[in-house]
Amino acid sequence: MNTHPPSADAADRPPADDTTASQPAATAQLQAQDSPLPNDGSATDAAHPSHIRSFVHRRGHITQGQRDALERLLEQWSIPYSPRLLDVTKAFGRQAPTILEIGFGMGETTEKIALSRPGDNFLGVEVFNAGVGSLLKRIEASAVPNIRIVQHDAVEVVRDMIAPDSLAGVHIYFPDPWPKKRHHKRRLIQPPFVKLLASRLAPGGYLHCATDWENYAEQMLEVLGAEPLLANTAKDYAPRPDYRPQTKFETRGLRLGHGVWDLIFKRVA
Fold first, then answer.
1. 249 labelled binding-site residue
2. Is 108 annotated as a binding residue?
3. Residue 12 bears catalytic tag
4. Which residue among the candidates 120, 176, 236, 242 is catalytic per the annotation?
């Protein structure tokens, strides 16, 4: 079993500790610490006690450049969370296949894929200010026009804003592995969420997950394989497709003998 600290995900995410974070604030109220966007989820949690958050409350470092990007660019490139279906054509200013990326970290992979696939829309979901600010800086520097950001809990975004049978693809790269067994229930890839994701994929659309934790890869394979709306495109794990760039942290991990597992499933009905 792979027991090393995650190489690809943690390095591409805002540094954080396990202290409690404030709920998200408006751009004008940004503080030095990183924190998730606000989500008054108390009612939701009471009604849905099994609801799994796509993030953990944390505080971490946010740079001045990331704060500046949030203040200047967030309104232009972000979509506020709303418990109503998103008009994707209006949000992107065009009609095109839409790929949802959940937990884009610092945005390096999101930027590279969006640049290599200009015909697709990319909707990135992330809660942490540092990651959102980092991707906004990349959008500006690369002049990449086909990315939009929702800074909110991904489970609620998928449930409330994404229409059934609408997505061309979903990317979930290196989600928090929650390596301790007692924390496995906190992992994002669980049957209820996978069922929800599958329902939002259009027939023929794909769900692509990647992890550098073997135990989590095994769980992903089991959970995805049990969803009747999904079919594996490989016997078990898939080769890394050309469109997913290999990060420098992933390259270093592979050189040290650490594994990386890709899983690509397609919506079948």
1. yes
2. no
3. no
4. 176
Assigned fold of 64-267: Rossmann fold (3.40.50)
Contacts (Cβ under 8 Å, ≥6 apart) of 72:
136
The Cα–Cα gap between 158 and 180 comes to 27
Question: Is 265 annotated for ligand binding?
Answer: no
**Phi/psi of residue 75, each to 5°?**
-65, -35
pTM, two decimals, is 0.81
34 is in an annotated binding site: no
For every one of its 269 residues, what pLDDT tens digit does the chain have, with 9 covering 90 and above? 444 444 444 334 444 333 333 333 333 334 344 555 443 332 333 333 345 554 454 556 899 999 999 999 999 999 999 999 999 999 999 999 999 999 999 999 999 999 999 999 999 999 999 999 999 999 999 999 999 999 999 999 999 999 999 999 999 999 999 999 999 999 999 999 999 999 999 999 999 999 999 999 999 999 999 999 999 999 999 999 999 999 887 888 889 889 999 999 999 98
Helix ranges (H only) for the chain are 42-47, 64-77, 88-92, 108-116, 129-142, 154-161, 191-200, 214-225, 248-255
